[in-house]
Specification:
Length: about 270
Amino acid sequence: MLVWARSGRIIAWAILGILVGIVYGLPIGLIALASVAGQWNGALPSHLTFDNYAAVLAGDPAGQLKVSIVTGLISSLGALAVGTWAALALRGLAALPRRILDLLFFIPSAVPSVSVGLGLLVAFSQPPLLLNGTTLIVILAHFILISAFTYGNVSAGLSRIAPEYEQMAASLGARPAYALRHVLLPLMRPYLLAAFSLSFALSMGELGATVMVYPPGWVTLPVGIFALTDRGDVFQGAALTMILTAVTLAVLVALSLVPNKAAARQA
């Protein structure tokens, strides 16, 4: 129900701000405080220091960050390609087959990620396709987990595009491939970018399946964070978490600027 009174809108925005602060701001704030804490024996940390950042930077965070970014980019691009192809292919099907195939696409998101990792270990630990101990199995795990979200975002965006655009292109003599490349895909660009951004963010934070399948030479930042906190270095784990958050947000902000730049060039 719409709130018309000015006082009502102020109260509604205040409640929303409190909820957002509790759900999102408070956890991030606590992690940020822990990342600069020397000790935390009371309600707030004491002996604030940047030694935690220095300690994690003295390790191999750059290598772990590179692994996370490469894994996220490859798996997200693969999921975007497959999800876009599937959304386009299923658009012309009847309602019942489309719903069944929709369900199949969303199965990976309905099971725990640890189960996906275990399934990959069982499936690819023996010839003829031996992937256990390789970087490819990590990328495959991320691809499986994020493909459902990519497909869902592309399908939702595609449903908002009126079919008349393609029909007009066809009436002017455009072949299907030409209409797809020059008419449909440009209209889908904002949805494709949003799907890729979500997939990349999910991949950067993925831990459950990754910790099951990663080889020693391909450690992502979430695995590094888990290793630090598992041995009791909570403050260093918090510092590494802030680095992961900052890098992920920077990439997402850069991706969000792409449509604006493209529109500016067209203008």
